[in-house]
Amino acid sequence: MRNMAERDGQLHDLEGKSNSLHMASGTFSAHATRLRKEQEWQRCKTRIAIFTVVLSLVWLLMLWLMAGKRGTFVLVSAAVLLVVLPIAWICVRRWRRLEEQEGFREAPDAI
């Protein structure tokens, strides 16, 4: 009887440890998903920054090469900028809305 009681106690202890491990693995999975999405957003921002720098350098080079038609070039550039900026702004707003819905921008819990 005593062995059965000890075994029952060990089984309950094992069940408690199993439940604890299951909860810890769920928390770990949620944190890993949040971290992956944050890193994806960081990579996206880095690519945007690099693209912006390269595009600015190309624009400056074209401005220098079009010495005789700078006024027209600047007007066309301004028109293109007026079209591109709202589209970029809408994309960023959409991404942030997705972040809020999925909750991966929240501060992580203490582990």
UniProtKB/TrEMBL annotation:
The keyword Transmembrane applies. Residues 2-61 form the V-SNARE coiled-coil homology domain. Keywords: Membrane, Transmembrane, Transmembrane helix. Residues 1-16 have a biased composition (Basic and acidic residues). The chain crosses the membrane at residues 48-67, 73-92. Residues 1-22 are annotated as: Disordered. InterPro entries: V_SNARE_CC. This is V-SNARE coiled-coil homology domain-containing protein. It comes from Effrenium voratum. The lineage of its organism: Eukaryota, Sar, Alveolata, Dinophyceae, Suessiales.
